[in-house]
Amino acid sequence: MLTTIATVLAGLLGTALIFMGGSFFTTPQISVGFGIPDTPADDPAFRSWLRVKGLREIASGVFVFVLMLVAPTSVLGWYMVVFAAIPPPEMRWSCCAAVGRRPPPTACTAQRRW
Fold this sequence. Notes:
Blueprint: H1 2-26, H2 44-70, H3 73-83, H4 87-98, H5 109-113
């Protein structure tokens, strides 16, 4: 039962990643301010960055489904654990970019205020 629930949640996450990555291509306007403050959506450099980010999200989502099809559930579980470690450093860099400074080794000043 627990394996089924975890596999379904992994499938939902994979689907969400594919849709989120696709949105970087189809509607880049919703991504303004996502990690790069004050960047217009029509800036070619920003669109290039979004394409790279979108491809990474799509590839991560597809990889979830590949693991669901060919690997044992323990491999899928370990992938999800490692994959869960990606957002905290990204958030740290994004928050610090928003306040205009490089994050110190311990924590970002923007995170300390929360």
